[in-house]
Amino acid sequence: MIRGRDVEKRYGRKRVLRGVDIAVPRGGFAVVTGANGSGKTTLLRLLAGLALATRGDLVVDVDRSQIGYLAHEPLVYRELTAMENLDLFGRLYRVPERRERIGMLLERFTLWEVRNERVSTYSRGMTQRLALCRALLHDPDLLVLDEPYSALDEDGAAVLDAELEGLAGKHTVVLATHDPDRVAQLQTARLALA
Amino acid sequence: MTYLADVAALTRKDLRVELRGRDTLPAMLLFVLSTLVVFHFAIPDDAGESAAYGLLWVAIVFTALLGLARAWVPEQEHGVLDGLVLAPCDRSAIWLGKTLATLAFLLAAQAVALPVFVLFFEPLDATALAGVLLADIGICAVGSLMSAMAAAARAREVLLPLLVLPLAIPLVVGGVGAAVSADGERFLLFLLLYDAVFAVLSWASFEYVVTE
What we know:
The complex is a heterodimer of chains A (194) and B (212).
Chain A: E1 2-11, E2 14-24, E3 29-34, H1 40-48, E4 55-60, E5 67-70, H2 82-92, H3 98-108, H4 124-136, E6 142-146, H5 154-167, E7 172-176, E8 189-193
Chain B: H1 2-21, H2 25-42, H3 49-69, H4 73-77, H5 80-86, H6 92-120, H7 126-151, H8 156-180, H9 184-210
Helix pairs in contact in B: 1-6, 2-3, 2-6, 3-6, 3-7, 3-8, 6-7, 6-9, 7-8, 7-9, 8-9
């Protein structure tokens, strides 16, 4: 599903990614590791289609509508409630039986009780759980997750563990993390950025 | 129909965000009213109607600029624009939703400002009001695109006026012309043409502004 050879990304004169080779088959689970500033986020933005490689070949064989992207930022509106945010994205992603899907995700990530409260009142961990709901909302074929465990408490991390276990093998996952041991049993490929 | 439903959902979202945050409209109202009050006391009574209409347009353009400067702030705050760009909807719907929401804020500010202008300065006939409406559409259409471009830059507060003001000059000429000229309809046609051309250009080019 993902094939990349000698991928390079520059912003102006600054090279943020150099000579990256990546291959993830359909249903694969790739873990991207590397120190801060090694280009993990940039690589994930390239995979999500939010940026273009400056050099090299990168093919992500999936429609835009089938990509679920979790970024450092939660990509949700602060002044809207969790329900309103997910309803908006559900509409834009043409999610069938939107209300049921949103309800199920909010229940699973224990946000149902606060679904009608504004995101600006959420803690960082709650916002991260909502961001995960948004990324999973349309049941994407390719899930691109940038530090998904950041800010999650143990309960939240356990829910994410269960979610990833359910997705592994059926959906393609690319996950950047500083804690690769957490997903070691799911991983089918590892990419260490220098 | 799906396109229009997307636009409606995005516009509704912007109105809801503003209703809760109250970040844009109060600032626009305060600015336009205080500008008219200052002009009322600063301009001599014998300055003439042309001067009064010119001042109205100064107030309108800078009020619109104030709204446009904040137009993409909710999308910037949590990186939401990336989420919208990734969605499989037509990306121009994002621009059209933003344009309609900004237009709604500008019209709301003018709903208060224009009666104050009539009270302090000169009456506004139907041609002048049509000129205001057409110029509003033009400035919001072009301004939403320019504001999205400026939002990605570091010096966005400086960049936005530099991008919008030159493009707003024909709108000011058309708006003042519609109010003061004996042949106001000609200026309305000019504004209509400007709106059509720049709305199509903005609609078509928005995708290239928000993607690499």
